[in-house]
Design a protein that fits this description.
The protein is α+β, with helices and mostly antiparallel strands. 22% of the residues lie in helices and 30% in strands. The protein has 3 domains: 53 residues, RNA-binding S4 domain (Structural Genomics Hypothetical 15.5 Kd Protein In mrcA-pckA Intergenic Region, Chain A), CATH 3.10.290; 93 residues, Pseudouridine synthase I, catalytic domain, N-terminal subdomain (Alpha-Beta Plaits); 80 residues, Alpha-L RNA-binding motif (Alpha-Beta Plaits, 2-Layer Sandwich), CATH 3.30.70.1560. Bound molecules: uracil. The site of uracil has 8 residues, from helix 5.
Length: 246
């Protein structure tokens, strides 16, 4: 029986080196070799018998790993930082696999973020068509009114993006301190989306936390702690993301 053929960029992404989009760029830039020959054609088919090198480093297939992390505030959602600030990977020093965060949370936002070395899985969850529901809790300056909340649910244009919430609920408010705690659920994942939405209606966000990612919660974790996802959770996430097609 012949070996299974797969697209080169997919194999690179699955090995955990980088995302599929970055793998495509590396191929186009002539940084990938198959059996000692530079390959620049996207979609070139390879099998497990082929010797693949990315930027001169042989590709080794890592077992996929998946983590759920409670990111504290003041940490960058990235693998490294030019300015030497704390990054999420600083909390995974014992993990051998080349993991990276799936999407991002702002430096000042705390909460649930996933990390993996599975580029295909990360691409699936980050794709705008497959955005899983995310639940945030924001502390706002000022107390949003019913009309403000309607506006957030209807959608507001900010810098050319239509930013829209699925659900918004004021959980509590303090008239004296002129602040509110608001739950907001998004099906989108635009950059700084929650902060931009509240800024647009003149209630700047003081504090922000992502409490849920689909069915996943921070239950049992403190800031800075993580746990591995179970194989069933990974399957469920994949199924949920595949089901959503916008
Ligand atoms: N929305 C934001 O404004 N910031 C985040 O980190 C996530 C969602």
């Amino acid at each position: 029986m012949s070996k299974k053929e797969e697209r080169l960029q997919k194999v690179i992404a699955q090995s955990g080196v980088t995302s599929r989009r970055k793998a495509e760029l590396l191929i186009e830039e002539g940084k990938v070799k198959v059996n000692d020959k530079v390959v620049t054609t996207l979609g070139t088919k390879v099998t497990s018998d082929d010797k693949i090198e990315v930027e001169g480093v042989p590709l080794e297939k890592e077992q996929p790993v998946y983590f759920l992390f409670y990111k504290p505030r003041g940490v960058i959602s990235s693998v490294k930082d030019d300015k030497n600030r704390k990054v999420v990977l600083d909390y995974f020093l014992e993990v051998q696999e080349r993991i990276f965060p799936i999407g991002r949370l702002d430096y000042d936002t705390s909460g649930l973020i996933l990390l993996t070395n599975d580029g295909e899985f990360a691409n699936l969850l980050m794709h705008p068509k497959h955005q899983i529901e995310k639940t945030y809790v924001a502390k706002t300056k000022g107390i949003p009114t019913r009309d403000d909340i309607k506006l957030l649910k209807k959608g507001i244009k900010v810098d050319g993006d239509l930013l829209k919430a699925e659900h918004v609920k004021v959980l509590s408010s303090d008239n004296k301190k002129n602040m509110a705690i608001v739950q907001i659920i998004l099906h989108q994942g635009k950059n700084r989306q929650v902060r931009r939405m509240f800024e647009a209606i003149n209630y700047p966000v003081d504090k922000l936390k992502r409490e849920q990612y689909g069915f996943l919660t921070l239950h049992g974790l403190n800031p800075g702690e993580s746990r591995e996802l179970t194989p069933h959770e990974v399957k469920q996430l994949r199924a949920e993301a595949t089901k959503i097609v916008k």
